[in-house]
Design brief:
- The protein is of the alpha+beta class.
- Helix content is 41%, strand content 25%.
- It has two helices and four strands, in the order βββααβ.
- Strands 2-1-4-3 form a four-stranded antiparallel sheet.
- α1 packs antiparallel against α2.
- The longest helix has 23 residues.
- It starts with a strand and ends with a strand.
Amino acid sequence: MPEMHFHVRWPDGRREVCYSPSLVVKDFLVPGESYAVDEFVEKTRTALNIASERVREKYGFACSSALDQLARIEAAAKLQPSDGRVTVETFEP
């Protein structure tokens, strides 16, 4: 399964490299675009759950790395200003 990393910049200026076990993130996020924090969380939640299910379909178990990444994103989002925007900087194969 092709995995990827996506680099984001949080509203507080912190940068993070996020992991996905699937390229499905490309269907939900666009490099160079910024998203309201809640929208970013929802898009990544959807993408990472789909990615985890793809792993389950192929290997018989969910992807704990995708679910861990989602938990980190959700935790980071709670620390951001409600009117902040998350910028997707790049995708990395």
